[in-house]
Amino acid sequence: MDPNIITNTDVVQLPSSVIVIAVSCHGIFDLDTPTELDTLSKGPTFSFIKAIQAMNEKLTGKTPKVTLFDVIILAKDLQGNQAKIENSIKHYGLPISRCWFFNNEEFTQSLKSTNAKLFLSMDSSDVCKALQEGVPAALLCPQTQAEGDKEQVANPFKVLLSGDVMGLPEEKLSEAGLSQPQLQTFKAAKASMAEFAAVIREMRRHFAREDSPLRVTLMSVLGSSKEWASALLTARGLGLEVDEAYCLAGASSGPILNCIQPHIMCYDGLYSVTEVPALS
């Protein structure tokens, strides 16, 4: 069965040359709290949409009629909430051009048919599936909302790159005893890194560094300082400017993640790994 595709007539439909970003609606809206209202409350990753919107608006202010992204929403097994999702997009004035509603079994096929250059979700299993199908994908990260911050506006747009994917050889992870699923996720992330980098590079090139609405961080969790340095060189080779970089050398990533609060994070399956020491 083909997905049910709904077009948002409140926004301009963009040409096919624009980068398509497919975003899971889980996290953008609160789908867990029952409500009698016709609209949904904001979810923990709602600020991602606001950050993308701010970036597009800043670009439009610099170069009229130029838009960076075409954001579409993917809703899996949520046909019962279809009307509320559509109403919520219009209620919050979100720059989302289309909604795709489909069943869980149709996930891979539906994702590929969107022609998305990047898929984003809070669900790591869906991110893994996308990566293994060759679709660049990253984790959507919840943002801590300051008390009284009703608008949940987040700027700049923060991207966290995996220094391990860029600098750590697969052989070292295999020798360290990581599980086969972890290795498969790591390999898939490594294979899609060039395409992921191309999307981030396209974001970056439209803005001067001093007024950029984008901030890129590179973090190595398990790699040594040598592999961290190699990752920085790889990033440079991919045309990526990095604003800050961290080498944790096996230390917990939690404190740094809480400080950075990225909107999206390159998923390599290693951020939660605690049983493997730094790989030197």
Automatic annotation (TrEMBL):
One of its GO terms (cellular component) is cytosol. It holds the Pfam family 5-nucleotidase. GO terms for molecular function: 5'-nucleotidase activity; magnesium ion binding; nucleotide binding. One of its GO terms (biological process) is nucleotide metabolic process. PANTHER family: CYTOSOLIC 5'-NUCLEOTIDASE 1 FAMILY MEMBER (PTHR31367), CYTOSOLIC 5'-NUCLEOTIDASE 1A (PTHR31367:SF3). This is Cytosolic 5'-nucleotidase 1A-like. It comes from Alosa alosa.
